[in-house]
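Fold this sequence, please.
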Amino acid sequence: MGELPSPQQVGSLETIDTDTKGKILARSDEATTWDVFQEITEIFILLPAMLGMKGNLEMTLASRLSTAVNVGKIELANEKWTLIIGNLGLKQLQSTVLGLLASLMAIVLGWIADGRLPLDHVGLLCSTSVCTTFVASLFQGIIMVGLIIGSKRIGINPDNVATPIAASFGDLITLALLGCFSQWFYSFMDLYSYVLYLLDLFLLCLIPLWIVISSKHAASRLLLRTGWEPIITAMVISSMGGLILDKTVSDPNLAGIILYAPVINGIGGNLVSIQASRISTHLHLNFSSGKVPEDRRRCQQPCGTFFGSAGPNHKSAKVLLLMVIPGQLIFLYVIQLLKGAHTMPSPLFTVAFLTASLIQVFTLLCIADCVVHCLWRRGKDPDSYSIPYLTALGDLLGTALLSLTFLLLWCSGDVGGV
């Protein structure tokens, strides 16, 4: 399974994440002033679902390939490339289908919330979502394969680096493409709206090709039949968080939440994904499917996740939780720089934001300990099932806690200190 990530190693991951998240925050703040975001507010419902979904697909791919590396399943060149190509084909299929489903979910929730939705908005949302997921999935899949193979060659455990980098670059690429595609399609929506539907049709016609490619390997062929439940469920959960975000952003007093939502959700998803991937690799190496340690046959009390019998997963949980405060303080400083300010937010906001982040990550780590072992006990691969559930819960919990934080600060008259 590799060595436990030290605080310095995890800190380096946070530094990588800071750079990419900083770019995300700059794009988020600027993009919200574009015409398409002002006119088609359903994009705010689509945004968390898109970011969560792409993160899920990249992180489950990274987790599966990292486990395959650690247990020695890609030593032979023929087996390695069959596994990689099969997984990439599966991911293209999932991204196309889920991109369409995410847009339909945003359309339904937007219609329920506003009571109306013009037809041209429907076409733009569908085309933007499908094109973004397709292109982002292609680029990110290639990056992840290169990263994991490179980590293996230089002796780094991919579990410690692949999933957080997958989430970071996944957010950056997806957000950039979402903003660019939506604004581009909006610019010619009135004159050439039929082009949007032709794009959707073309990408959907590629689905049979991805099915054939993903069927070439036994593992991806199994996921082709059974791997839809967690990612679709995760998309629905993330959409609920998007609905909360849409309603919060619509209030001018709380609109600043759009800057902080990617931070709290990104940190929570990254940290819990590292933990879930490590626990999964530990189970693959030491236990047969359906068998779990004696102390994990039932879900533990929250403290059992951090304090228990000697083992790397308890230590990593404590290290990851301890990284929340310094990591978020760095992000708060980056946000202030992007806003052109040279001082930190008010002490009350800082304490409230850090408290929300700690509650989120503590809860996610406890849930991960339970969910990963429960999935393994039931004969399901946690690499494919646990991360979508955990990151989606992280998005929903993070958005809800952040909205509550902003609401409480507004009631106390402190939002101006943000």
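The first helix runs from residue 7 to 31. Confidence is low (pLDDT under 50) at residues 1-29.
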